[in-house]
């Protein structure tokens, strides 16, 4: 399933989005700002702290999260995409989009973060 093009464009163009995961009771955990990139028609996120990142641990456990940015708030399913070709494309997307912030970019293109390369997909209503 693909995002509506307008929503995909809004999320993909944002310099930062917020992500939250669901608790067992269905309530949302606190919102965490993260970077998002677009490669082709796909949206990707990574955890700067690798698999130990708080938002990542909780969201990856259920493969479900909620994101918000620029008037859009929606549930997303998370799909781990840690193969070499995808990681190379996502590294390039991060480098292109965030090249003006080299010290913050470095951990996002490191192996630790690359191991958490995650493709976002919309959750059907």
Descriptive overview:
The protein has a single domain, classed as Pnp Oxidase, Chain A. The chain is built from 5 helices and 7 strands; from the N terminus they run αββββαββαααβ. The protein starts with a helix and ends with a strand. By secondary structure, the protein is an alpha+beta fold. A hairpin with a 2-residue loop joins β5 (64-69) and β6. Strands 2-1-5-6-7-4-3 form a 7-stranded antiparallel sheet. Pfam families: DUF2255.
Could you list some keywords that capture this structure?
5 helices; DUF2255 family protein; seven-stranded antiparallel sheet; 35% helix; 7 strands; Split_barrel_FMN-bd; 125 residues; alpha+beta; UCP028498; Pnp Oxidase, Chain A
């Amino acid at each position: 399933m693909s995002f509506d093009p307008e929503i995909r464009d809004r999320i993909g163009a944002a310099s930062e989005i917020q992500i939250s995961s669901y608790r067992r009771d269905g309530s949302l955990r606190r919102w965490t700002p993260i970077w998002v990139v677009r490669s082709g028609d796909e949206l990707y996120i990574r955890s700067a702290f690798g698999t130990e990142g708080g938002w990542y641990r909780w969201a990856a456990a259920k493969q479900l999260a909620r994101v918000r940015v620029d008037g859009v708030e929606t549930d997303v399913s998370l799909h781990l995409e840690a193969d070499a070709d995808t990681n190379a494309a996502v590294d390039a997307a991060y480098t292109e989009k965030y090249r003006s912030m080299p010290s913050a970019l470095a951990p996002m293109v490191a192996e630790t973060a690359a191991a958490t390369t995650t493709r976002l997909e919309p959750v059907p209503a």
